[in-house]
Request: fold
Amino acid sequence: MKIIHVVGARPNFMKVAPVLKSLSKFNGVSQLLVHTGQHYDANMSEVFFQQLGLPEPDINLEVGSGSHAVQTAQIMMSWEEVALRERPDLVLVYGDVNSTVATALVCAKLQIPLGHVEAGLRSFDRTMPEEINRLLTDQIADFLFTPSEDGNVNLLREGVPAEKIHLVGNVMIDTLVRLLPIARGSQIFNDLNLRSKNYGLVTLHRPSNVDDTASLTAIMTALQGISRDIPLIFPIHPRTRARLDTLDKPLSANGRLRLLEPLGYLDFLRLQIDAALVITDSGGIQEESTFLGVPCLTVRENTERPITVEMGTNVIVGQDMDHLSAEVLRILEGKGKAGTIPPLWDGRAGERIAEIIVHFKQ
Ligand code: UD1
Reply:
């Protein structure tokens, strides 16, 4: 059985690692790893391959950046050639990035069986490119591996046959569980001279937050205010960096609001473990902070990961910066949201996926 995993952007890499590893334990399964090249900077891609112990991609489509149409179309054209040449029995795609939907569309047209890892998540906000990517990929996938029960409910409501849906748990958490002991040894905590639970960790990269000058300015002003109460560490995504450089009022980063380059997986995890709070618009970090029990304030109007709110430590603050600041103060007063770890977020989701795939074929 020949399986090709297609990944392209930073959050895909943590998701493919456990599935690849679990499938490698089965005789008769050959695997190829294809990187679309959607993310190409060393600190957005290569460092993750090294730290996650991923093999070098067998094929890199090297599509790079572009508008949604350009990026999606280029992935489709390059991937179609590879798919026709390699003729896989199954293709696995991950998450909700442009690489995911582009790969999926080609597979559907070529009638190559397709599995979607992290299926069924819905924000119900179609202004998000990721929501479109999720909806389309799930409609054409043959295996839908969901991280939580809400994913099953969403897929059934959209008419996906029950036999295609497999509740397996969260592959992102598999990687976290595996690498937590190694992350604890990262030097970054000392290098930045931090004290446990005495800083906040910030990540922001959603177009809805950073592409609009007024929103970005409001958020940065709020972060400067919050940093007077608790120091903030903010590793900056390239999209956000580019937008910050265009602001009229230059940002006065200071000792209490520290702007860093994007961090590797282990350093970021190390910082997350001991953070007093996380402020983010990332999907994956909502999940990781829930697992770690760290209060998370999500700067979005919605989440496709409602279980992190229902069971975990996540609070959706939207783009209301007064709400954000008030929630930070609540956390600093010791009244942050406590949570529990959702079912099947146990480090074994990749194993469950591998079992399902291998036994289905036999
Ligand atoms: C993409 C995903 C998003 C995910 C995020 C994680 C889509 C639609 N969005 O958003 O869901 O949360 O990845 O990071 O797929 N750039 C670089 N170097 C890189 C990659 C990007 O400088 O290695 C810059 C380029 O200017 C590029 C911009 O970042 O145009 C945006 O990159 P892109 O991959 O289009 O989207 P992300 O914002 O990274």
Remarks:
- The chain has 16 helices and 13 strands.
- The pocket of uridine-diphosphate-N-acetylglucosamine is lined by residues 9-11, 38-41, 44, 65, 96-98, 129-130, 205, 237-239, 242 (CB under 6 Å).
- The first strand starts at residue 2 and ends at 7.
- The first helix runs from residue 10 to 23.
